[in-house]
Design brief:
By secondary structure, the chain is α+β, with helices and mostly antiparallel strands. It has one domain: Cytochrome P450 (Cytochrome p450). Helices cover 47% and strands 7% of the residues. Strands 1-2-7-4 form a 4-stranded mixed β-sheet. A hairpin with a 2-residue loop joins strand 5 (349-351) and strand 6 (354-356). The longest helix is centred in the middle third of the chain and has 32 residues, at 292-323. The structure holds protoporphyrin IX containing FE (HEM). Protoporphyrin IX containing FE binds next to helix 17 and helix 19.
Length: 470
């Protein structure tokens, strides 16, 4: 028998040996071997991949982590290299404001925008990119945009009166709020809006693109090679896929805006920094930080981050207000983003007698925090009055708001929190003051967290929140 005919068997045998050695190392030698958790999850990343991609349609790992917590306690090894902690009072240790913690490298490729502040894993690079954006998103800056946001809200209300009131024609809240969020952020980012709020039936290619981008999150996170592979395939071929076609269109739209801005002579651009990208272009960032590619990444990131989160929050709040008329005008944000966002410390963490080695990704998340029955008893019942009168947490000392982490905490906390609050206040107040709504073939399962696609998504066959305007 020729020697070369044995090669496949030699390769297969070596690979098998390598896998066995890897599993033995992960289970018995790795510095994380002492942490509790399912052995299979510690042995292979495929465990997480199975829950994110396959089990019950995917997006199920966040919920699986909650089950692990119930079985193994407040600290769990959730995959070969990462720990998850479920202890409300420890949140501020991991998400400390000025701590020099990195984020996950694999997240850089998640939305194919590695150069955006949102994706930047390295703490120092993130700090510089973030610092130039911060001034645009302060409370006072956002308040100055209040009249513009109110004008969009008024446009929506006028349409509700003209096209829906008194008719048996349900309004799709998910789509309607997506249009609001999209118009607000594109206008504030570029000084141009897409007029999504005027679109037929609140359905637009832009919102479809954003929705698909969010849905692709597990595919691109679990298989790091997907994004580089996609980048090798011409867009016109990628656009044949119904998943990627709207994403490509969405990205091209934003790329076009950036190109337009860069084409303007610098003098024309210097209009006092009215839009996010004027602020960026007039900032003191070095030239290599202001390339077309980097600005395109920042554009997708800022528009994307503003979109699904705000749409979800508005839809959920309005559903609960309509379903419970006695809670009119009091609101609480649900989970925010449910997917964990680990931090990597250059120093050790100490938790519950464990020493967590430097360089280990450690996370908590808003799903575990907001469903913690010690801090939020009866957490699945919508009782927004619990937030009235500056309440204390169950220990009677700390403010309850310390545990409200829908916008995250620390150096990577939500950049657009004030903008989101502004949209929520103006939109919800206008809708609830001006209209009487009735839910149409909609119940809690249309808003409750079923699967995670970065943000909490309702059951797959949900048609969204639909209401009749009386
Ligand atoms: C209700 C609405 C919103 C919720 C619940 C929300 C939630 C969050 C959360 C939890 C994070 C932190 C992720 C992490 O720890 O890694 C985040 C980051 C971010 N959010 Fe929001 N967000 C909302 C609206 C917005 C809006 C309107 C904008 C508009 C610009 C925005 C822009 C961003 C950006 C750019 C980041 C990344 C910040 C960084 O990495 O430094 N978000 N958001």
């Amino acid at each position: 028998m020729a020697v070369w005919s044995l090669l496949p068997a030699v390769f297969a045998g070596s690979y098998l040996l390598y896998c066995v050695a890897l599993v033995v190392h992960r289970l018995y030698i790795s510095p994380l071997a002492k942490f509790p958790g399912p052995k299979l999850a510690a042995a292979t990343q495929w465990y997480e991949t199975y829950y994110e991609m396959l089990y019950n349609g995917g997006g199920m790992f966040t919920k699986r982590i909650k089950e692990m917590r119930e079985q193994y306690g407040p600290i769990v090894r959730i995959n070969p290299w990462e720990l998850h902690i479920d202890e409300p009072d420890y949140y501020e240790t991991i998400y400390a404001p000025s701590a020099p913690y990195d984020s996950l490298k694999v997240f850089e490729a998640r939305f194919n925008i590695p150069k955006a502040a949102f994706s930047t894993a390295d703490h120092t690079a993130h700090k510089h990119r973030r610092a130039v954006l911060n001034p645009f998103f302060t409370k006072s800056k956002i308040q100055a945009h209040g009249p513009f946001i109110q004008s969009l809200v008024d446009t929506i209300c006028a349409r509700l009166t003209a096209e829906y009131a008194g008719r048996q024609k349900p309004v799709k809240f998910n789509g309607m709020f997506a249009c609001l969020a999209g118009d607000v952020i594109t206008n504030l980012a570029f000084g141009k809006e897409y007029d999504l709020c005027l679109s037929e039936d609140w359905e637009t290619p832009f919102t479809k693109g954003m929705t698909n981008l969010v849905s692709s999150t597990h595919l691109t996170t679990q298989f790091e090679w997907v994004v580089p592979l996609m980048n090798c395939i011409p867009d016109r071929i990628m656009a044949m896929s119904p998943l990627f076609q709207p994403i490509i269109e969405f990205r091209h739209g934003l790329n076009h805006r950036i190109k337009e801005l860069l084409k303007k002579r610098p003098k024309e651009r210097d209009t006092g920094g009215d839009t996010v990208f004027e602020v960026l272009l007039n900032s003191k960032l070095p030239r290599e930080e202001l390339t077309e590619e980097r600005l395109q990444h920042e554009a997708v990131s800022i528009v994307g981050a503003a979109f699904d989160t705000t749409r979800q929050a508005l839809t959920m709040v309005c559903f609960h207000i309509i379903a419970n008329p006695d809670i009119y005008q009091r609101l609480r944000i649900g989970y925010g983003t449910v997917q964990r966002s680990p931090r990597i410390s250059p120093r050790e963490f100490h938790f519950n007698g464990y020493t967590i080695p430097p360089g280990t990704p450690v996370s908590q998340d808003s799903y575990h925090m907001h469903s913690n029955e010690r801090v939020f008893p009866d957490s699945t019942t919508y009782r927004s009055e619990k937030w009235l009168g500056d309440p204390k947490s169950p220990d009677g000392v700390k403010q309850l708001s310390r545990y409200m982490v829908a916008f995250g905490r620390g150096a990577r906390m939500c950049l657009g929190m004030q903008m989101a609050y502004c949209e929520l206040y103006l939109m919800v107040a206008s809708l609830m003051r001006r209209f009487e709504f009735e839910l149409f073939e909609t119940d809690r399962s249309d808003v409750d967290f079923y699967r995670d696609a970065l943000t909490p998504q309702a059951k797959p066959d949900s048609q969204g929140v639909r209401v009749l305007v009386k």
